[in-house]
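Possible regression after last week's pipeline update?

I re-ran a chain I had predicted before the update to compare outputs. Posting the input and the new output here so someone can diff against the archived version. Not blocking, just want to make sure nothing changed silently.
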Amino acid sequence: MKHYQNCTLCPRKCGVDRENARGICGESNILRVARASLHMWEEPCLSGDVGSGTVFFTGCNLGCIYCQNYNITHEHHGKEITTERLAEIFLELQEKGAANINLVTAVHFTPHIIQALDIARKNSLKLPIVYNSSGYERPETLKMLDGYIDIYLPDYKYFDPVLAKRFSFAPDYPSVVREALREMFRQVGTPVFDADGMMKKGMIVRHLVLPAHTADSMNVLSDLHETFGDDIYISIMSQYTPCRTFEDTPELSRKLTRYEYKKVTDFAEKLGIVNGFLQSGEAAKESFIPDFDERGV
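New output (post-update):
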């Protein structure tokens, strides 16, 4: 596929010929998936009572040092599959009763995903498609997905470029994510729900509150609310779970405190954010992180 030659699918624009080498995302042009299953831990309007049909792709273009999915984003565990097999996975999840098809960290396999969705739709795939992303996306690549994605589920991780550089080696993240969110919203617009309260179209922006960085979280929320108002949903997440000990960034070696999370959610209330989701303290457990055992692949 031409997009894997001199690859510029993501904002890193590493220019690697992924037919012969691996990009910054850690992946070649061969599609790899680590898990495909019903997942109950997404926002209620995505998981419902049956679960979201999540497909976890191997590799990541952002590479946050604290990533909870470390063994697939950094260690690159996953199974090589064909585009045709990916289409079959989508249909198998639909047969299991999935509320939607949820593509997790998929930007570096965008051409494969478009082909797989075309095949699956010809074979009666009817579910909404969720694009679950770090938010570190190029508008040009997102435009390739226009008409394929029903629900965008991006992160907005950092407002401060210094934090973005420290934790994700991407000082341009704040400016990149703002452009990406605008393109995502252009495609899907204001939220649409069915009679059971399940989202069928729209955007939910996630923000993970990091220990010791509540001020940045509040800046993120202010920026989102000022830009989109009540036209999107905002998911304020408390689930930060240390994956290891960090010598250079010791604050990341602990979980978020209840006080820190409440400080951010109280601020959201003062801003007037009404379309949102909060998490309980129970979310910050290792059991929240699925086993990437190639189940369903």
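Follow-up from reviewer: compared with the archived run. The mean pLDDT is 94. Marking as no regression found.
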